[in-house]
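Ex. 9. Protein: Cadmium-translocating P-type ATPase.
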Amino acid sequence: MLYPQRFTQFTREHADTLAALLCGLLLFLGWFALHLGALGWALLLLPAAYVIGGYESAREGLTTLIKEKELDVDLLMIVAAVGAASLGLWRREYHLIIDGAILILIFAISGALEGYAMRRTERSIRSLMSLTPDTARVLHQQGEEEVPISQLRVGDEIVVKPGELIPTDGIIVSGYSTLNQAAITGESLPVEKTVGEEVFAGTLNGYGALKLQVHKPAASSLIQRVIRLVEQAQTEEPPSQQFIDRFERGYAKVIVLAGILLAILPPFIWGWDWETTIYRALTFLVVASPCALMAAIMPTLLSGIANGARQGILFKNGAQLEKIGKVRAIAFDKTGTLTTGQLQISQVIAVSEYSQADVLKAAAALESSSEHPIGKAIVQAANDLDWVRGVEVQAIPGQGITGIVNNQKVIVGKVAFIQQHLTQLPEELLDLAQSLEQEGKTVVWVAQAEQVMGAIAIADTIRTEAVASITRLRKLGIAEIVMITGDNQRTADSVAQAVGISRVYAELLPEDKLDVIRSLQKQYQTVAMVGDGINDAPALAQASVGIAMGVAGSDVALETADVVLMADKLEKIATAIKLGRRSQSIVKQNIVVALGFIVLLLVGNFLGNINLPIGVIGHEGSTVLVTLSGLRLLK
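Predicted structure tokens for Cadmium-translocating P-type ATPase:
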């Protein structure tokens, strides 16, 4: 049963190609029969070519006419072909039937080529769907059980062996490995992953076995979101395509009216004979049809969307691919966008007889009982040191934490909190701490047994690619780049200076960020916003193009944004802008070519220099040309 199923699937997917081939075969046999004088066979074979080659176009054209009361190019082609055949039968000039069949054949070939182009762009979805296995091995008390992905529940623990695809998003519970994330994030090199880190469905596990805990439903995994968004992008039409669609309907009516007038008036005005008049009118219907103009936009934009997806840039629809090429100003959020959003120890200062290790161990002994991000950063930095957990630990929210470590009272927190317990602090440490805070760093003081041990400077790490990304955007001609953040002005200024941004809006609430975007839009019209958090969602929605960080971004930000950077790589913003500009350039080229062909063919038709087959070849050739031109973005 396998081969019949495959054959059925093949014929369904390539029905347009098979119809064109069969139409061509019947046309050749009909022409050959006519050449031999077998008129009966010719009149049997040629109508069959009409029916097989033109059935789909006739069906679509009549459906549009009946249901929507509109004319389209499919119906115009069929009318022209049937008109040529009728004229040939009436005048017993059977070569006109051949001309009509050639029109049907070339139109069918054009449709098959356009179908091939669309299938090329749709492969991105099929390849994404094939990235995830159908089942996962779930751990139970009785052992392993292989279950469908759809049956996975949050909290389940699954095993992934070396060389296998990750079945769903999860957190590593045990194990260490490298994962190839190229298909999801566009990263060319494998990424090391260990306990506590997140892995994504569709990524390829390297040499180590992993035990994962499912932390979100399988339907909410990153790869499933990608699939849904790509599907949405391929079904939604951008404004330019919507305009062309509306233009086609009105244009077709004008062409039909003009064709009727051309079939009636020339004998009375220019003295043409009726055969020439009707033949030129039919040729006019063919060459004036806007097929090439209709194919000038969507193949290009769909190819651009597929290209972006391969590079870790997900456009939700073609409209955003159009808009991003026109962006003149960009607003960046700070935390999680220009920075990693992960606090790290930047400096440890020890005073008196204490060492840096002593300061870290004392702080970690207390912070190990805290869930605060600063505490987690301190504990992580002290992982390689030998320390004991403090007892009688008491945290004062927003101030600090106290406890007993090795029978000594230890105090960790802000300088004001330390001053509540100690009367005198080292002047040199106060000066150094103030300098560090001016750089945007958070300073945590550590004291033991009524004596200051030192201080720890903590900062949100700036993304390594941030500076180069900002530079690339300026080279692309972006007129304004600003940073908007809810963080304090001092920290914001420090980060902005480090990455090369001069205009900073700090201490903003979500509605304040929205106002900044609106202000930029008044000045620059097309404005992009790059963010990752829930508080960025209103600004992302307001921006002409909202860009979300795919890995670090919240679900709200991902749903609100128009473009998602799957690997959180800021340098991909410049790539997306260049892709948008190139797509617009190709669309403009295609429109010029399409209109140019229509004008040339119309002039040639009125001068009497082209016949119906040549008009068909020119018309359909231009359609194929602009379609293939749009596919250049697949490279």
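Check your answer against this statement. The longest strand covers residues 339-350.
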